[in-house]
Specification:
alpha/beta; 6-stranded mixed beta sheet; 16 helices; 13 strands; 16% strand; flat
Length: 463
């Protein structure tokens, strides 16, 4: 559904949870925002109503004068506001009732409820933000790690927009040279084919450099799903508890204790990780355990990385081999647990039969919190060998931006191919315009309503 960006909008701008949070904010933006505030807010004394000043007072029902809440009012007049419109914020007491009542009074006074992301959409349409900055704001709100937050802040401060805008400007310069020769061929010197080719190759190289951040960006935003799998009683739950420094999973000596998939959220090397402790995989007649085993198999199938866990005191067994055959081909680390209860010579002998294609092995004693650092290092190594850069980046692009950059790269490749085939200049300009449009889609200089709808509908209401 297309955004309606007219009128004055209002929404609750903070998370509202019962008995959680001391302050709740109701935000209004638009030409009537200040008038609405004057209808509802009563400031004692001689406080001055002016921009970027905080006033203390009360919200009263405009008809009954019934007291609703004691609040602070922040006024921001256009264009010095988030949306570049007149904006007011009512800083109410936290909880549910106060902010909901204040929001309802704003709606009754002439505002309408904002759609998801509409405040930020207005900031974009009014020129305060470009599209990469707007997406950076959404990423910052949803950041799952400090590194994800830093990457989002890089987008907000323009570290992505700046190189993209320069690439687009360079393409426009090349296009101007080409079209000038089309329109005024007799009045200008011949086109320098070597210079044009060199410029386009430089642009393509920079696009490839930016595209290389896409995988890291996806990891920072969505994280990695890791499944701990293995036969019963090899220490999977102990491994989860040691890793997460909690008692999320029940640990006993009885096989089949874990009946379902237990989840824990961790951060490793700045990358959010969802760890799934699965039920021990074995044949069983227990109906509940059988369901847990099936869920374990599905969790392993959907995981980005499998930690196949075995018991060091028993070595590689036929059941381990059977489990491995089900996860074979997936990114995998072999975790040899319980090394604290076997001597090194026996441990070496017990591992002689594991498959040669398993090239990453980590030894742990989960019950004694040993080997966790080595496990995390192996996971980061697995990410690196998967051609995902684990080093810090100035910024990291998202899927939409990567698709637009890929389209721009394809258009540039076609231009270079056209030059090589010595086709007329008109053919050059067609594909070059395609690259310029694709780069403009990233920052919002070229964008359709459907793209805006898709981007901003993912925002929370009030942002």
């Amino acid at each position: 559904m297309p955004f309606a960006t007219t009128g004055t909008i209002a929404a609750i701008a903070t998370a509202i949870v019962p008995q959680q949070g001391s302050v709740g904010i109701v935000r209004a933006s638009g030409s009537e925002a200040i008038d609405i505030a004057k209808k509802l807010f009563h400031a004692p004394g001689k406080q001055v109503w002016e921009s970027h000043r905080i006033l203390y007072g009360y919200i009263r029902h405009p008809q009954t004068q019934e007291l609703v809440d004691e609040v602070l009012l922040l006024i921001m007049t256009s264009p010095r506001s988030y949306t570049r419109e007149d904006v007011v914020e009512f800083h109410c007491h936290g909880g549910i009732m106060a902010v909901q009542q204040v929001l309802q009074l704003c709606l009754e006074a002439g505002a309408r409820l904002a759609q998801p992301g509409e405040f930020t959409l207005r900031a974009f349409l009014n020129g305060r933000l470009d599209l990469t900055q707007a997406e950076g704001i959404a990423d910052l709100v949803g950041a799952k790690s400090p590194q994800a937050a830093q990457s989002a802040l890089a987008g907000i401060t323009g570290k992505l927009a700046q190189p993209i805008k320069k690439l687009r400007a360079d393409c426009l310069d090349v296009l101007a040279e080409i079209e000038a020769r089309i329109d005024f061929e007799d009045d200008l010197p011949p086109l320098d084919y070597e210079f044009i080719t060199s410029e386009l190759q430089k642009i393509e190289k920079e696009i490839n450099h930016i595209l290389a951040t896409a995988d890291k960006g996806e990891l920072l935003r969505t994280g990695l799903k890791v499944a701990i799998v293995g036969r019963p009683n090899v220490g999977k739950s102990s491994l989860l508890n040691a890793w997460s420094r909690s008692d999320r999973a029940i640990v006993t000596d009885l096989p089949g204790t874990t009946r379902d998939v237990v989840e824990s959220q961790l951060v490793v090397g700045g990358i959010p990780i969802q760890v799934l402790d699965t039920a021990g995989i074995r044949e069983t007649e227990d109906t509940v355990e059988k369901i847990g085993v099936e869920r374990s198999r599905k969790a392993a199938e959907s995981a980005d990385l499998v930690l196949l866990t075995i018991d060091a005191s028993q070595g590689w067994t036929p059941l381990d081999e059977e489990i491995y055959s089900n996860v074979k081909g997936r990114p995998l680390i072999l975790v040899v647990n319980k090394i604290d209860i076997v001597v090194e010579t026996r441990l070496i002998a017990s591992l002689q039969h594991y498959p040669n294609e398993i090239n990453q092995i980590v030894k742990t004693a989960a019950a004694k919190n040993q080997g966790i650092d080595a496990l995390e290092a192996a996971i980061l190594e697995k990410i690196q060998t998967g051609k995902i850069q684990a080093a810090d980046l100035d910024f990291a692009i998202n899927q939409r931006q990567a698709a637009a950059l890929t389209q721009a790269k394809s258009c540039l490749e076609q231009v270079l191919n056209t030059i090589e085939q010595d086709l007329p200049l008109d053919f050059w300009s067609i594909d070059l315009r395609g690259a310029i449009y694709a780069l403009g889609e990233i920052t919002g200089e070229e964008v359709t309503e459907s793209v805006l709808d898709k981007i901003f509908s993912r925002f929370c209401i009030g942002k």
